[in-house]
Write a structure and sequence with these properties.
With about 350 residues, the chain is mainly α. The protein has two domains: about 10-115, no CATH class; about 115-345, no CATH class. The chain is about 70% helix and about 0% strand. It has helices at about 10-25, 30-35, 45-65, 65-80, 95-105, 115-135, 140-150, 155-175, 175-195, 200-210, 220-230, 235-265, 275-280, 285-295, 300-315, 325-350. Helix 8 (about 155-175) runs antiparallel to helix 9 (about 175-195). The two termini are about 30 Å apart.
Length: about 350
């Protein structure tokens, strides 16, 4: 195994090879669009490039997502070849390998480059960037401080802080791993410091952070895919999800509360919390979120609304020195966004 922060020679070779199938699609985009799907022949070069592309996507899933999903994708690909020999509902007519490559590599409305990946590359990507902007301007810290004041002094206070802050940050993130990183770095050590079992601390943070995927206004990639496939406006889907998301967090909150009473879990020390005045002074950091919701409500596309929200986040960052977005911070924003987009993009490519 090579170090995670230091690519090996094999990593570089695979990275260069991965460019070749993509460049072929870009260079020959027009002729490929003129093909008759599932009728025109597939050349040997296209079969080779498509096979390489499929294998590299599976390898990327194994590395970036989880090995289990890579295995699942491989099983579904193998199913195509064994399906003609299976009984009843599992039967499928034989499919040539060249057509399998065509469906997954050459077509723009299905497979690796289908609508699911397209949604990720447009709507989801811009929202991930917005979430990184909000995190870098310390909106996540504001959510944590607000949650501390709301629930920190009650039974199981630190665990409740994890639930509330994860729900609030999840509303601007839409990426579970980013949610854990933003809130868990504070709440998990705090819970362990006050005597909470590490397993309990991790479970609360994981469950609360995962709920960010269904918390409007910025939900997970699935919501954008749903909007694309059903032609239902994203704002309508987000509104419909709001009640379910709230009930999800209410259930986790009360579960934490009852466990805290049962195990006599400690509250947070008031000395470790900011005053209400200090917390509310940072409430202006929510302005980009207000801008996003306002533009969605008046009918702007998710991409357009998020673009305006990013612009407002950049401008308000200059109101205070510690939130000002320097060139270094901007680089960190796009670095973090790139990583999250790669993870989501690879997942959606595999699903396609």
């Amino acid at each position: 195994k090579s170090p995670a922060d230091q690519p090996s020679w094999l990593d570089w070779i695979l990275a260069v090879i991965s460019l070749v199938p993509a460049l072929y699609i870009i260079i020959y985009n027009e002729p490929l669009n003129m093909r008759m799907q599932m009728v025109s022949s597939v050349s040997t070069l296209q079969i080779v490039l498509g096979t390489i592309n499929i294998l590299l996507v599976i390898e990327a899933i194994r590395r970036v997502v989880v090995p289990a999903m890579a295995i699942l994708v491989a099983i579904f690909l193998l199913y195509v070849f064994v399906a003609p020999y299976l009984p009843s509902i599992f039967y499928s007519r034989p499919l040539r390998f060249s057509r399998l490559v065509e469906m997954n590599y050459l077509l723009s409305d299905s497979g690796i480059y289908g609508s699911i990946t397209g949604v990720t590359a447009t709507f989801v990507a811009i929202f991930v960037i917005f979430g990184s902007f909000m995190e870098m301007t310390k909106t996540g810290a504001f959510f944590t401080n607000l949650a501390s004041k709301l629930a920190g002094q009650g039974p199981g206070g630190p665990a409740k802080i994890a639930v509330i802050s994860s729900g609030l940050f999840g509303s601007i993130s839409g990426v579970a791993s980013a949610n854990v990183y933003a809130t868990g770095t504070f709440t998990i050590p705090l819970m362990k410091k006050l005597g909470y079992r590490p397993q309990f601390a991790g479970a609360v943070e994981a469950a609360a952070s995962t709920g960010g995927l269904i918390m409007p206004p910025i939900m997970g990639a699935g919501a954008f895919v749903m909007s694309e496939i059903t032609n239902i406006p994203y704002a309508t889907i987000a509104l419909a999800a709001a009640l379910g998301a709230i009930l999800y967090y209410v259930s986790i909150y009360w579960r934490v509360h009852f466990v805290a009473l049962k195990d006599n879990l400690k509250a947070m020390d008031p000395k470790d919390m900011l005053s209400w005045k200090q917390v509310l002074l940072d409430s202006y950091l929510l302005l980009p979120l207000v801008v996003l919701i306002a533009f969605l409500v008046i009918g702007y596309s998710p991409f357009g609304a998020c673009t305006y929200a990013i612009g407002s986040s950049f401008l308000i960052s200059f109101l205070r020195k510690d939130t000002r977005l320097s060139p270094k911070k901007l680089f960190q924003i796009f670095e973090k966004s790139g990583y999250n987009c790669i993870m989501l993009g690879v997942t959606c490519a595999g699903a396609g």
